Amino acid sequence: MRRYRTNLVIAAIVATLICTVGIILWRSFLPDRTRDMEKAVQVANVVPIVVIGSGPAGLSAALYAARAAVYTVVFEGKTPGGQLTGTTYVENWPGTGKLLGSQLIEQNKKQAENFGAVMIQDTIALVDFSQWPFKLVTEDGHELHALAVVIATGAEPKLLNEMRKVPGEKEYWGYGVTTCAVCDAPFYKGKKVIVIGGGDSAVEEATLLTSYAESVTILVRGPAMRAAPAMRARIKESPKINVVYNAEIEEILGDGQKVTAVRLIHKQDKKTEELPVDGVFLAIGHRPNTALFKEYVKRDADGYIHLAGPGQATSVPGIFVAGDVADRVYRQAGVAAGDGIRAALDALSFLQKHGYNEKIAKKLERNFYEPHPETAVRPLEKIITMKDFDKVAKEHSLLVIDVGSEYCASCKALLPIVQSVAGQMGDKAHFVRIDLGDEPAELVKKFDIKAIPAILIIKQGKLVARYDQQLFTRRELAAVIQQLIG
Ligand code: NDP
Predict the structure, then answer these.
(1) Is 198 a pocket residue for ligand 1 (Cβ < 6 Å)?
(2) DSSP state letters, 328-366
(3) Are β-strands 155-157 and 143-151 bridged in parallel, bridged antiparallel, or unpaired?
(4) In this structure, are strands 279-282 and 192-196 parallel, antiparallel, or unpaired?
(5) pTM above 0.85, yes or no
(6) Per annotation, catalytic residue among 19, 122, 140, 180
(7) pLDDT tens digits for 422-468?
(8) Ligand 1, closest atom to CA 222?
(9) Residue 205: helix, strand or coil by DSSP?
(10) Is residue 183 annotated as part of the catalytic site, yes or no?
């Protein structure tokens, strides 16, 4: 009797196992009704693959997706080209010699465009990944639907205050405190500066600053630098650089107008020291740009997108990720580009698995999202001297001044936005440009320009608002100006 019961239990377990495996296998061969391509054909403004972000990760993803003859649209974001455009030379991109970060990005972009990828200078402001095709809305208010998305939004520089309050950082932002040596180093000719951080960025910023500054101190909070040996070797080559270890910044001091010193604490003996400096360059790492996706995609405690695997898949089927936005370890342009390739291949096989083929592509074509024609752009008149300024300020009650330079990538990203807002609001305000390449010494002094890009707004001849080192979307800038019109 007992034996009979045991056999019965074993038979029940085996039967349950067989049923479970059967159900799993049956389900895996069933088409996924929630991602039915016939449904996608009904949707307006559709794009098979949308890439959000235009750094090396986004551009490589676009290259592979477009080369597979799949309509691919890239939203370039607030900083087209990403972090590489804010760096100087790249010497570790496999297969090429030393070249500027901005040149590398330009090449990558052209290569993707040659295969048909469409670049749009707009930012995704809203997503809804709970529906499929996925809904995306741009800053300019255009709505589109994607069958697959590659998130490649990268990371942006961290500030000291994000970790612990450092008095003076916020107060002197743009007046001696900055995160962009490429943009602001020329303001520090013959001056003393400090770079905070011990990574590759810190070394890069410090070496760049030596071409202008009288002396550069690198402040490392621990006993050693994190920078790669090849980068550390650069420090030894420059007699202008001095490294201080085991010390942290407690306060950034100034005279109410600009930075004059920093107060440090030496961790070992707890002694504080006041170091006179004119500029503080922050190079303390980066924070991933993932806030937009937090409702839908799983992230870790620091905001990095969680790789659900295999490959570059996230927790949402059809949403893939590439580059620094999911990489807290390597954070290299080459690795980001590799991730982008993987993400594109994953997105392509996702489409195929869900029934995307030539027939569907043909049907979809009728409903493709077409890039919205850019609003009319208005070239900006340049002002170089005080006389030029006085003339335009007298003639126009509201004056918007874009301050930038050829060598600053963020300035180059902001300029078309300003030109486009000028096209849109040119009847309400007058837009002009100060280009530092023209050596507009009087204007630099008058407006106390210490960081670029900058937007200065003059009402009835008086400076009423300024935005130092701040990037805008078209909508944000138009809103700021509209507010001043009243
Ligand atoms: P990292 O994260 O590599 O380094 C950040 C540095 O800032 C660390 O030394 C860290 O100290 C320090 N730090 C962090 N918070 C604070 C704080 N509150 N106060 C003081 N110091 C702080 O960032 P990077 O931007 O330097 O580099 C990012 C990635 O980009 C890396 O992978 C790097 O290799 C790459 N890169 C490559 C370049 C090239 O090859 N040409 C150029 C620039 C970047 P601790 O070490 O104690 O944590």
Answers:
(1) yes
(2) SS---HHHHHHHHHHHHHHHHHHHHHTT--HHHHHHHHT
(3) unpaired
(4) parallel
(5) no
(6) 180
(7) 988 888 899 999 999 999 999 999 999 988 999 999 999 999 999 99
(8) 47
(9) helix
(10) yes
